[in-house]
Amino acid sequence: MADQTLNVPSLVVAAVLVFLSVRYFFFSSPSSTQAASDRNTANPAHIEQIAQMFPQLNRRDIQWDLQRNGGSVQATTERVLSGRSLDRPPPSFQPIQPLPSSSYTAPAPLPPRPSHPDLIARYKLESRISQPDVPKPEVEEEKPNAPEWGKTKAERQSLLRQRKVEMVLAARRRFEEKERAGKQ
Prior knowledge:
With 184 residues, the protein is mainly α. The protein is built from nine helices and no strands. Helix 3 packs across helix 4. The longest helix is centred in the C-terminal third of the chain and has 31 residues. The radius of gyration is 38 Å and the shape is elongated. The mean pLDDT is 77.
């Protein structure tokens, strides 16, 4: 082993390794360092997504958990759903506040629904409120559990509408009776 000599191929390999290591450590491209820093920051869209699913959570805690688990929304969601609380970030953790983007537009407000004050107005039963109760024929009283179904779809639909009107009017009468009894 005393006559170890350096040959040309081993010198070339050593020179290439030194060149690559110097280039890697001193002349690394900014995109690789930017990619490494992006792994350590949480995507604002992911933070917003989790905050919408779990409004009771603090955004700072969400960002800390996303940063710790590599930005995995699924891991953070699983942690919350399993009942474990998110870890509190250390006081030295300063979350990066996203700049407000001009491309975001608030959702348009929903058009207001036409509101009816009550069922009487909705079903246009004002004229029938003042009418006295019309007793039903005795034939129906004999078979209270037998449903009346029409043979056609139109008949069934009109029977169901009539039954709905009767139920609304009966509920209105009971309500008025209860109010009168409460006033006396």
